Amino acid sequence: MIGIACTASDLNRCDRGLDRLAEAVRSGVLTAGGLPLIFPVMSLSEDLMKPTAMLYRNLLAIEVEEAIRSQPLDGIVALGNCDKTVPAYLMALASADIPALVVTGGFRAPATFRGGRLGSGTSLWRYYDARRSGLLSDADWTRLEVCLGRGLGACNTMGTASSMAIVAEALGMMLPGAGVTLAGDLQQLAGAEAAGRRIVAMTADGVRPSGMLTPAAFANAIAALAAVGGSTNAIIHLCAIAGRRAITLPLRQFADVAAAVPVIADISPAGSGLMPDLASAGGLPAVLAEIAPHLDQGALTAAGAPLGELLAGARRQPGGAIRAADDPVTREPAFTVVHGNLAPDGAVIKTAAASPALLRHRGPAIVFRSYQEMRERIDDPALDVTPDSVLVLAGCGPVGAGMPEWGMIPIPRKLLDRGVTDMLRVTDGRMSGTSFGTVVLHVCPESAIGGPLARLMDGDVIRLDAPAGELTVEVGPTAFAARQPALPTPGDMRGWPVLHRQHVTQAPEGCDYDFLQARTPEQLPFVEPVIGRS
Ligand code: FES
Prior knowledge:
This protein is an alpha/beta fold.
């Protein structure tokens, strides 16, 4: 019995169309002699769910894990697409540990606007600033909205959905070549059908996630993420998935791998192309072939063969969106990690999409304690801000607000009008994988539990030295500790947000719930239910 979990929903345009792929999986399962059973699961829509789909990632993971526990399934194919669906699946599959494959719905075809292709998210952020500067009329803005809303599929930049599809493939949880595909392409149907056939074979052979999700596979996935200049959100998700298998991925490992593996995928926001360009240049197999010296080629692919065999036949298209390893898109690493008295447990920065000149920067802080406060003050002509200021948004960590993607704080209007396009920003929240700019993210511990951002004040001098891995505030430890922390007042006193606050871990632990992680060997086995009368 093969379960086919599907997040298709009218509430999530990125996952619309997955029901068609689910039918193709069903066909493959039947062909291979299995019994396919499609079932819907919660759909996590990045653009519609507020405050953030991240608040519900673990809920979907719980739903899928408990569906597997409570139903007599021998294997599962999990269909998702939008940002949080794939990580939620991978977390659940890592815990439930029955034979499993992931199938994604691919990226949407780019629309054109003013003669150029629109990259999901990335183009919007740029045009949003143009709009704020008065460079885009109401009519242009309306037309832009229509263009951005066109088509099914995930964001066509290297956002979190693209990054997580690539991570799933690199982990061996998705058939090779399936992670970078155009939504609606007929090849996708063939791939979904192949996944249906493959899962039956995996079930017969007892191939389980525990055999795929090894430290070597996680190291390969981190290398793949670095090579494609992937989303910083994937760092959190990888930590969460690994935590389900009692594997710890220290932030240091992400920084070390990114320092060694060049960014070779020329895809926005770190590069200039879009996901169709990556597909036509050879997709993930071609990327992995180019960084092969950094990979454990003995790791298994979802097809059953070792990675080395796959790479032997993979080549990048010369002149395409996959650059040679000795001619990277940028000399900066995809991302790096900083520590210091402002982030004792670490923070991350997407260096490949930052301004090199700001990666070493010193300036006075302007502290916003909430998103609402930031929105109210950011364009106030009276805001005491210069291009050297450091914009800080606190209160948006996993406990404080469910960790929304509020980190790419808009450049204040008065600076935008002077041509300023980037500033150093610091937050305990996240930012979209489609975002860019010099933004220090995931500051840990977060301010809502008394982390350093809670004691930061306007005018405090912040120093970032990203190459040295440092983020500090120039206030003496005694004076800093003596300050009263500004802690947010929780809005919700009942319901899911309360459970979330009580159990969510910090970013370096993946923002998983403490009771879902495998912290001890005893917590690793998946316990099947007692079978009796209902
Ligand atoms: Fe769904 Fe980007 S909003 S993939």
